Write the structure tokens for this entry.
Amino acid sequence: MRFAKLHGAGNDYLYVNGHETEVSDPSALAVRMSNRHVGVGADGLILALPPEGDGDVRMRMFNADGSESEMCGNGVRCLAAFAVTRGLAAGDTVRVETLAGLREVALHRDEAGRIVRGSTAMGRPILAPADIPVDAAGDRAVDVPLEVEGRTLTMTCVSMGNPHAIFYTDAVADWPLERLGPAIERHPRFPNRVNVHAVEVVSSEEATVRTWERGSGPTLACGTGACAVGVAGVLTGRTGRRLRCYVPGGDLEIAWPADDAAVRLTGPIEEVFTGEWPEG
């Protein structure tokens, strides 16, 4: 089975062309291939499948633990590039069908014609607690308390087609992500589990972000998470509608228009290598 490895700001996935290869058990395959010691190593597996609706390509993504997620901002951007370079989509605007809805990706090339960046219309943020979902009172979960491991934390919750919990701190490097991340991910207040983000505000237009990704653990970047951080910054008055997120794997740019329309995510795309896996 042929595959390619691509990453967006260090958020790496393994891509398989589902037009030519049928994967019988993608969940189990994601676990085997994503293992960084005895597999290829990745945050998960993404299949490029024939569209079922108005898209050019359909995306299914599986985390490193085998769980399926609705969407991935970095993953969908790289999938668009994978589809164009494999002839699955034409032009540099690609419509991708995801479990969170249709996402349109505009690809950008360097002077040599290589695809190096992408900008994605990520859809409107979902703010109603029942729809995120999170167990919280009121019409929005903004700066609400969360009891975890004997501590009371303050969180803001946003869905970008998948759930996110944002925690602000004065020292993001010292925030105990590896300890609190798994406890918050599986906290009973999140029926579908949750992505966890520790955020340090640098200025009204900049923030440093560390992420515990649902189903994958610590990641170098999370595209939908960066979008959620941008929305949370506006909701809490901490940052403006344009935000540069400094993540361990690079920078991601977020824009949320004043009319509260779709959040736009812009970031890098890099194909690392291709290979052959001995099973499907």
Observations:
- The chain has four helices and 18 strands.
- The CA atoms of residues 166 and 236 lie 11 Å apart.
- The helical segments are 26-34, 73-85, 177-185, 223-236.
- Residues 2-121+267-276 form a domain with the Diaminopimelate Epimerase; Chain A, domain 1 fold (CATH 3.10.310.10).
